Structure formats: structure tokens, C-alpha cells
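Structure first, sequence second, as always.
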């Protein structure tokens, strides 16, 4: 039987941060209700107008979930919602919430594998620009809201948008990682990087998996429960260490046989 091992404080801290990233002091995000609702747009009347327009568009999108609506009507409504969001973004490019919602709409329309080139020619035509637009929207939304808060202080609305944006980007990266892994396992499959659309990060499946884990972690730090739950689940290092621990436990607990 193996001897008991006493971990040092440093070893315990490293393992705790590996398997529970939320325990890190760096994970602290302070929500300050006294901060302006949006760190970039200070005009209260303009912000109220944008949120009103945004709510109306979201209401239309949510209406497409009704079972009674036809597929044709659903497609048309989502297309009109996309046009409305794009018009507002073109006029007010620094309102991060609009970009976050347009990225979510693209995910509703085309799924999370929008960064991977489709083998269906019709799908390529429909979604050829969806991936780059969704990724640019999420990158810009995150940049707008984080660059304005260097000390980690966020307003409640700012924190919610960051939580959603990070988690959405993580979902896209995670789906991309899985799809690239599947494609690489197929016979006569092209290189993983050849499966990606142009003007996108030319990473392999492991790179996208690591990026997804980092973004899930950030989404969790800003309060998204899905991001918090998936941060460790998608962490390749944590999964590898978990496998090593399982193997060690099997060797410790299962009887061994010896040959004479």
C-alpha cells in the first residue's frame, strides 16, 4: 500500500486552482452598482433608445420559438431581426450589447460550427459570412467592455453582457474543436486548418479546445453558470490530470497479480 503523501501548501494551491479555477484570487470580478450601465455610451437618453429597440428585436426573435410558426415565417423573421440589429450596429458600433445579440442570433440561425467550412455547398452559401461576423462581434463586445474597466469593476449590465459574450465565444470554439477532431479522424480528411473558413484563427482542435476552456472560465467569472460548469470540463490540462489521478487510484485500489 502506498504511503500517505502530505502536500505542501504550494502544491495544494496549484491543484486547487487547476481543478477549481474559480478559487483563484484572480477570478474576482467586482460588480459596482454605482457605475454607469454602459462604460462606453454615457448618453442616458441614447442608451434608453437603444435598449428599447433591442428589446423589440429580441421579442421578435423569441416569438420564432412558438411551435405554431412555419419554417418560412421563422426564417423571414430571423432575417429581418438580423437586418435590424445590423442597421443599429452600423449606426452605433460601440454599443456592445447589440453585437452580443447579433452573434447569438447567428448561432440560432446557423449553429455553433460556423467557423468550420461546410461540406454542403448550399450551407456554404448561406453561412459563409456568419462565422467571421459572429466572432468579430463577440471579440469587439468583449474589448469594448473590458478595456473600459481596467480594475475589474463592472456594472451589473456590463457584467451580464461580458458573461454572455465570453460564453458564446467559448461555445463556438468548443464546437469548432469537436468538429475539427471529427474531420481529422475521417479517411482522406483534409488538414484541420484547411477545414476552417478564411480570415479566422488557423488553430487545430487542441488550440480551439484550450481557447474554449479559457472563455468558459471568463464567462463563469462574470456570472454565467454554464461557463462556470464547463470551464473545468473542457480544460484539457485538468482532464489529463484527472486521467492520471484515475490511473493512480486504479493501481492503488485494484489487486495486482504477480508471476512466480
Amino acid at each position: 500500500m502506498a504511503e500517505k503523501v502530505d502536500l505542501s501548501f504550494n502544491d495544494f494551491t496549484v491543484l486547487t486552482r487547476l481543478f477549481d479555477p474559480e478559487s483563484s484570487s484572480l477570478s474576482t470580478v467586482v460588480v459596482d452598482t454605482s457605475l454607469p450601465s454602459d462604460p462606453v455610451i454615457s448618453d442616458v437618453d441614447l442608451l434608453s433608445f437603444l435598449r428599447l429597440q433591442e428589446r423589440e428585436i429580441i421579442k421578435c426573435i423569441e416569438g420564432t420559438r412558438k411551435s405554431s410558426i412555419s419554417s418560412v415565417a421563422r426564417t423571414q423573421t430571423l432575417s429581418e431581426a438580423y437586418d435590424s440589429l445590423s442597421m443599429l450596429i452600423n449606426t452605433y458600433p460601440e454599443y456592445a450589447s447589440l453585437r452580443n445579440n447579433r452573434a447569438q442570433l447567428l448561432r440560432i440561425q446557423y449553429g455553433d460550427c460556423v467557423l468550420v467550412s461546410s461540406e454542403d455547398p448550399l450551407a456554404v452559401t448561406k453561412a459563409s459570412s456568419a462565422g467571421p461576423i459572429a466572432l468579430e462581434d463577440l471579440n469587439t463586445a468583449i474589448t469594448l467592455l473590458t478595456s473600459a474597466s481596467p480594475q475589474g469593476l463592472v456594472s451589473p449590465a456590463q457584467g451580464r453582457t461580458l458573461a454572455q459574450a465570453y460564453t458564446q465565444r467559448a461555445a463556438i470554439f468548443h464546437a469548432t474543436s469537436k468538429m475539427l477532431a471529427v474531420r481529422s479522424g475521417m479517411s482522406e480528411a483534409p488538414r484541420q486548418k484547411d477545414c476552417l473558413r478564411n480570415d479566422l484563427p488557423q488553430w487545430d482542435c487542441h488550440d480551439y479546445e484550450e481557447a474554449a476552456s479559457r472563455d468558459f472560465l471568463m464567462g463563469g467569472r462574470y456570472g454565467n453558470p454554464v461557463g462556470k460548469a464547463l470551464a473545468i470540463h473542457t480544460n484539457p490540462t485538468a482532464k489529463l490530470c484527472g486521467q492520471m489521478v484515475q490511473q493512480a487510484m486504479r493501481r492503488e485500489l485494484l489487486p495486482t497479480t504477480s508471476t512466480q
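Margin note: DSSP finds ten helices and two strands in the chain.
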